[in-house]
Amino acid sequence: MTDPNWSDFRIILALDKGGSVSGAARLLGVDTSTVSRRLAAAEGVFGAKLIVRGGGAFRFTPEGLAVLKAAEVMDATVSTTTLDVRSMRQAAEGTVRIACVPTAAHVLRPLVGEVGDTHPGLHVDLMSSISGIDLSKGDADIAVRTIPPKDPGLVIAHTFTWGSALYASRDYLARHGRPDTPEALCDHPLV
What we know:
Elements: H1 6-18, H2 21-28, H3 32-46, E1 51-54, E2 57-60, H4 62-89, E3 94-100, H5 102-118, E4 122-128, E5 142-144, H6 170-176
């Protein structure tokens, strides 16, 4: 008995995705008789019936489900590996514009050097400003924000958390008083 190869698993995956022999044939770009021959060959390699046909429909046998499960894992591995290898061959190049508030600039500044060291063709343009940045209009590629954006078309990822605090000298508090609420900060100069 020969060992199965990728095409034996691939035919089972195509049958599952296509939902029928003709659907599998369309996915694979072959005719239905080729799908039937490949299925028979796979069943011969595995030494078990993998599907049970009934009219135009079929169902997987327990052995067929085991092969399908393995085929799904293999397909995911092949897809991921293919993407990884292709991306390794393509050097990252160009400019990525990152907009951030000034308080985040010191956290992100080391990133500029790290990216340049790792990907010499890639340049990070760090834009530090309190003015609004509209990603949908192309003002920047990435925005580090302290509040979530409202645009549903943006991909949001929580990257890091940083705290903030307000400080005042004893003399200042003696002259102007301590604010009790965030709203009371409007009556105080902030640096």
